[in-house]
Structures are given as C-alpha cells and as structure tokens.
Amino acid sequence: MTITRIDAEARWSDVVIHNQTLYYTGVPENLQADAYAQTANTLAQIDAILQKQGSDKTKILDATIFLANGDDFAAMNKAWDEWVVAGHAPVRCTVQARLMKAEYKVEIKIIAAV
C-alpha cells in the first residue's frame, strides 16, 4: 500500500494520494474578498492541485463545501456553477460551519481520481 503525502507538515499534508485517489482541502487566499471571489479563488487552487497531479476537475468524485454564513450560498453557487463542467459534476454537500479563521467565508474539500 502506497500513500503519498505532498507538502506534509506536522499537523497536515496539503495533498494525500492513495489508490489513485487524491484528497485535498482548499481555503481562500484572498481573505478580504466576498464569498463569490473566495470561492473562485479556492476553485482555482483546486484546478492547480489537480493539474499538478495529472488530473482535472472532471475527475472530482466528491466535494464538501463549508460556508461560514449560509447567506453566502447563492454567491458560492454562482462561482461553482461558472467553474463546474456540465455533465461532470461531483457528488456535493454544502454545510454551514464556523470556520477556524474568521476571514474564511468558504472552505472546500475534494476527493478526485488521478
């Protein structure tokens, strides 16, 4: 059994790959932006991570989106709908949660085939 941990630190790894399956959680870098821009920023990070590992967003199997404020659901969905490939949408769950950094409006966890 091979488990690849990319950019592993003491508390977490940026990416973990096992059985040709990639696990990743993205958080926004543009912390002063609104929920739409933070979602778009996080999705762009997901694109970059997947590309670096020889995959792409059409191979995402599952996505969990955490929103700090449920009122941002429409803004998040706008960014998501502009990004997701029609006919290749993953299973998706969106929950409202208190995120660990007050500036985060969104956090996105994915599982993808590589």
Top keywords for this entry?
alpha+beta; 6 strands; RutC-like_sf; RidA family protein
Your description of this structure?
This protein has 114 residues and is an alpha+beta fold. Helix content is 25%, strand content 32%. A six-stranded mixed β-sheet has the order 1-2-3-6-4-5. The longest helix is centred in the middle third of the chain and has 18 residues, at 35-52. The mean pLDDT is 97.
Topology:
Elements: E1 3-6, E2 15-18, E3 21-26, H1 35-52, E4 60-67, H2 73-83, E5 91-96, E6 106-113
Parallel strand pairs: 4-5
Antiparallel strand pairs: 1-2, 2-3, 3-6, 4-6
Helix pairs in contact: 1-2
**Topology order in helix (H) and strand (E) letters:** EEEHEHEE
Helix content, binned percent: 25-40%
The average pLDDT value, as a whole number, equals 97
- Please tell me how large the radius of gyration is: 14 Å
Put simply, the count of helices is 2
Low-confidence stretches: none
**Beta strand count:** 6
Strand content: 25-35%
Strand order of the largest sheet: 1-2-3-6-4-5
Distance between the termini: 16 Å
Largest sheet: 6 strands, mixed
- What does the overall shape look like? globular
- Secondary-structure-based class equals alpha+beta
Protein name: RidA family protein
Pfam family, one: Ribonuc_L-PSP
Family: Belongs to the RutC family.
In short:
This protein is 25% helix and 32% strand. The chain is an alpha+beta fold and 114 residues long.
